[in-house]
Amino acid sequence: MNRIGIIGSGTMGIGIAQVAATSGCEVFLYDANAAQTEKSVLNLQKTLDKLVGKEKISLEKSEEIFKRIKACSNLSDLKDCDLVIEAIIENKEIKTGVFKKLEDIVSEDCVIGSNTSSISITSLSAELTKPERFIGIHFFNPAPLMPLVEVIPGLLTDKNLPRQIYDLMGEWGKIPVIAKDVPGFIVNRIARPFYGEALRIVEENIATPEQVDDAVKTLGNFKMGPFELMDLIGIDINFSVTKTVYQDYFYDPKYKPSLLQQRMSEAKFLGRKTGKGFYDYSEGAEKPFPEKDEELYETIFQRIISMLINEAVEAKRLGIASDEDLELAIQKGVNYPKGLLAWGKEIGFDKISETLQNLYEEYQEERYRQSPLLKKM
Q1: Can you tell me the distance from the alpha carbon of 132 to that of 94, in angstroms, rounded to the nearest whole number?
Q2: Model-level pTM?
Q3: Which of 175, 210, 214, 306 could tie 355 with a disulfide, CB 3.0–4.6 Å?
Q4: What is the set of active-site residues?
């Protein structure tokens, strides 16, 4: 697969294009918004110039990468591609509309992939004439830097295709994992409590966002706290993924979205991209210093880590991925300091079970129910 089409030239699309071009592929970049493509290509040139300046790549390599990416004005320009990866808005109807048009353009042998972070691969492929050549190829942002790629076959995907894409991602210098087609796949399913439980703690005035962030970084050695990370990702995007997972799991209380996050989205307090989220990013603004409280910090950390480990154990029980891939995905997809199954063993699964039981008795909510496998670990 040497001729790669990318549909969508936003941050993710141009990032995937850079990855493919760096590995020697010829890349055809298309976006319905030509101005967006032009802007992204200019930004890519600046990125490559910075890499040359930092001596991460040579000037010759930079020029090669840039020349391999061809901006396209029509979807038909992707007709000779071996693989096309879609990276547009997280909207099923819009995506399937593009795929139907694409099928009339590309060859029968062309593989069609989606970078969706949470929409069912089976549902996206169901209306295609050749659903067997469709697969999920989920990169993480920023694509050139984040090593993980989730490879997700749907029920209709050809059984040999996942390994083919898995090997291709390895050739591209990525760390691939194969996941079942479940809502959120591996990372966006297992990581939901990192945000959800943090939001619950703040909603109930148990702690402030800066205290929650400080607690998980201090006690868990996380690089970023949940509120810092939501501000970086975009509160609206994080909220949208949570809603999708919640709806696709038939409104399971474990994944219930946060009213606080909804209000933040409505107010357009979306994080770094709007200058204000849970923190203020305007010029001269100072980040609040958390009021440290050892006992409170321990409570915060135990709640969040217990929910995360329980979710990882449930993913193991359901066979969403192999144990190795579950651990890899969390460490390489969201930079957790340890795999959650290993972390559970370290803390003690009995302690995790006790924490969840206490929360269940306090709240009487299904969100705190334990995986049937947890007590057997």
Answers
A1: 20
A2: 0.94
A3: 306
A4: 117, 138, 150, 188
